[in-house]
Sequence to fold (241 residues):
Amino acid sequence: MTDQATPAAQALRLITNRYPHALGAVLGGSAAQGCATPTSDLDVAVLLPDSDTSRREVIRHDGRLAELFLHTLADVPVAFERDRGLRRGTVLFIYDRGLPLMDPHGHLSRTRAQARAVLAAGPPILTQAEWERGRYILTCFMDDLIDTRPADRYEQLSLADFTLREAAHLLTAHHHAWTGIGKWLPRRLLSADPELGKALLDGHRTVAEQRDPAPLAAAAEQVLNLLGGPLREGYTQREWA
Fold:
């Protein structure tokens, strides 16, 4: 691959051509880590002057999809707080771990420092009501998963997915760690708890490959036991979500 064909070079051309007024830009995701495939998209965070508008755009450039996270300087703190509230830190991680593409006035360096401070503080701590609701939901998914018959594959696989997601949400929250979706869910889960996270992921795979829900249910119960155990009778939801 020539220098002009690298993801970084493609991303920089995109910014130069489409946003010539940009104050800074950083390439994130697998492209920044050097593990992008030919079909991987480009995740690019772009800083804009306050005369522009914050937004998210998906475009195609040089034959490659690009997902652009565009924020004005004034909107950056709000965007970071919103990102933190989702507990995934998508944009925060792009600024923290991404590859700088341009920073003519130092705005990108300062924004990266802000992102790192937010990441260091960690995601919000769940409220008592959120913990209880999470325990109840995971208990329900776990119980239903155990009760499915091997022949009911659609139901079994769907329940396995929801069990894994809710268990990952609670386990990462227990460790005050960031969570993720898609391919980032297993990465964040293993980072937060290598042993129990792997047990959950291995259990999920066992459901898919062997139609056996027992290992995933056992791992989910381990997560619940960290938080006070399964929650069934006695649960009260005081507000409708």
